[in-house]
């Protein structure tokens, strides 16, 4: 015979918000409920005295697992894919602005990179139009992008070490970096390096952009240099 407890503590939960998150236990995107609770002392199952607050917790609607609120800091799979796609697009535009668009190989590599990142309809005209718009609209993004190539295809007016360009890249790559494995961060830098190398050796402006990318991805300077050197070596 099971003897029932006379005195216990019961928690009454209340849902205060809901949404979608990446569930650590399920390993995928799931719906969640953000809940707070109130503990009460019970006698013979009847709630009597308050014993304080419980939570807040994030409860997975699928597995019912409960997690600390910082579980919501991890982006969903869909959000992470969008962040990666936008980061590749930003880096590509920065490299085109720094190295110029005269080279057909560079343009084709840039388009392929952006398509593979999640913009399947990207074409050369779209990238060139966007660069021109950014150059003409001095307040659209930042002064770092107020540069387009001249008739010879060389980048004009870009300060590759400029604070504005660094801010632009950091704002795109910074939130993404903590959620990428080291191999993923390195792959993103190598992808950028291949665009710069499509028409030959790195230019000083391209190296500055790539160094900024490495810093934004929290790669050590030595690792950035190693990866840029490795990118020059045919596989």
TrEMBL record:
| Domain Co-chaperone DjlA N-terminal span(s) in chain numbering | 156-227
* Protein name (database record): TerB family tellurite resistance protein
